[in-house]
Amino acid sequence: MNNPPGHILLIDDEPAFQRLGGAWLAGLGHRVSIAGDAPSAAERFRELKPDVVLLDLAIPPSMTTDAGLELIRGFSSVPVIVITGHADHELALKATERGAWDFIAKPVDPELLRMIVGRAMQKAKLEQELQALKTRAGDDDLGIVGHSAPIRQLRDLIRRIAPTQLSVVIQGPTGTGKELVARALHRNGLKPAGPIVSVHCGAVPADLLESELFGHLKGSFTGAYRDQPGLIDSANGGTLFLDEVGEMPTPMQVKLLRFLQEGTYMPVGGRELRRSDVRVIAATHRDLQAMVSEGSFREDLFYRLKGMVLRTPALAERREDVPLLAALFLKRALGKRRVHLLPEAAAWLAEQPWPGNVRELQSLIECTAALAPSSAGIETSVGIEELSFAQGTAAPANGVALRRGLDEAIAALEVQMITAALVQTGNNRSESARILGISRVGLLKKLDRLGLRP
User: Fold this and answer.
1) pLDDT of residue 335
2) What single DSSP character describes residue 341?
3) pLDDT at 373
4) Confidence of residue 412 (pLDDT cuts 50, 70, 90)
5) CA–CA separation, 268 and 214 (whole Å)
């Protein structure tokens, strides 16, 4: 079996070994991260999630092997290879008892290290594949709720495409769950243990998008006070999700195309190419083919991204899923509070046009839940009147108004109006405050008081 490349965290306080050992392992195709002491090792392990750990037992701040042995348990979720200048059989046994996978002494034999690291990486990759299989077996709906024909077809395509390196474009109206599809592709793909990093191409200013994606070096522009890795580097070994890729400026389209073709990129201010192994998934609510015809989207980038197109259906195309989604959102919003959706309310929901799709439905249910009585232990129902009131299309029914005191009714109305404003503005708080006729600070205080601020 060929030794698979992976991500190694090398924990050693000797600069020479960091440099030489790291370079030698990188020459074998591995990605190598360095830590020189116990605190930074724990932090880097938590943040980077490496496949294998190479650990020198005598590292700062303690510099004792006993303290080094205690570190092993913190890294035991991956194979740990203990590497030290103390070629001691008893120490090796202690390290193994604490969860070390193997042991090697300095001076290190390069071929022995290559063999041990290769076996450890094989073990790590097999465990990741096993975990991926367990995840798939226990997640039949892939996190995409519904039993309509379009959703069943979408899930089937995800299962077939996920375990490949095929690039994917997810196309569909706003609010239809394109990021859910991207995450399902990642979880069921070849690198489920790797990171999935999202960037909204329309939310980042055009002059900052290059730095956001590719990173920058210290001094490359005003305000660049330190080296900053980009999202492409953060996604290495996993998935890069480009949301609303149709909003990407043309100059950035050229640079993204070069990365997709060659797998290399250059940080802003850099002179050396860097490599990142990522699967790219893009999403858009726009017609990219039409944009290509108009000249606003590069044709070569379109065909590079478009390995496969998955379409997320509008909620109006899957009306039979609406009651199921509504019940799920209601349960999430209310937790242990006993509130259920009346059958006629479920039918009414299924008949609505839903221009905002699943996102609009979720917002309505959350607003309805916020207006529901909060009496513990009393089961209440949600009907058409409550939904209409939360939607802002009807005045509250007498039953709604009389179930609460004046202060509670005013708070409920504030919740409804604030939620509606936030939905209308895409959660833009400054614009929502303007619509509501209050200051932004006043809105933030109301969000805190009403428990609406995350």
Assistant:
1) 72
2) E
3) 66
4) low
5) 7
The tens digit of pLDDT for each residue in 54-76 reads 998 888 888 888 888 889 989 98
Assigned token pair, 50 = 């490496």
Q: What is the DSSP string of 127-168?
A: HHHHHHHHHHHT-TTTT----SHHHHHHHHHHHHHTTS---E
Q: Which residues contact 333 (CB under 8 A, 6 or more apart)?
A: 365, 366, 369, 370
* CATH number of the structural domain 7-133: 3.40.50.2300
Q: How many CA atoms lie within 13 A of 52 on its CB side?
A: 29
Q: Are both 7-133 and 148-313 of the same fold? A: yes
CATH architecture of the domain covering 148-313: 3-Layer(aba) Sandwich (3.40)
Secondary structure in 3-state letters for the chain: CCCCCCEEEEECCCHHHHHHHHHHHHHCCCEEEEECCHHHHHHHHHHHCCCEEEECCCCCCCCCHHHHHHHHHHHCCCCEEEEECCCCHHHHHHHHHCCCCEEEECCCCHHHHHHHHHHHHHHHHHHHHHHHHHHHHCCCCCCCCCCCHHHHHHHHHHHHHCCCCCCEEEECCCCCCHHHHHHHHHHCCCCCCCCEEEEECCCCCHHHHHHHHHCECCCCCCCCCCCECCHHHHCCCEEEEEECHHHCCHHHHHHHHHHHHHCEECCECCCCCEECCEEEEEEECCCHHHHHHHCCCCHHHHHHHCCEEEECCCHHHCHHHHHHHHHHHHHHHHCCCCEEECHHHHHHHHHCCCCCHHHHHHHHHHHHHHHCCCCCCCCEEECHHHHHHHHCCCCCCHHHHHCCCHHHHHHHHHHHHHHHHHHHCCCCHHHHHHHHCCCHHHHHHHHHHHCCCC
Buried b (16+ CB within 10 A) or exposed e, 130-141: eebeeebeeeee
Q: Closest by alpha carbon to 167, among 84, 222, 58, 240? A: 240
pTM above 0.70, yes or no: no
Domain boundaries defined on the chain: 7-133, 148-313, 318-450
Half-sphere exposure of 114 (CA within 13 A, CB side): 11
How many Cα neighbours within 13 Å face the side chain of 214? 29
What residue type is 36 in one-letter code?
Answer: G
CATH architecture of 318-450: Orthogonal Bundle (1.10)
CB atoms within 10 A of CB 97: 10
β-bridge partners, 196: 239
Q: What is the pLDDT of residues 230-257, one digit of tens each?
A: 999 999 999 999 999 999 998 899 999 9
172, two tokens: 């569909």
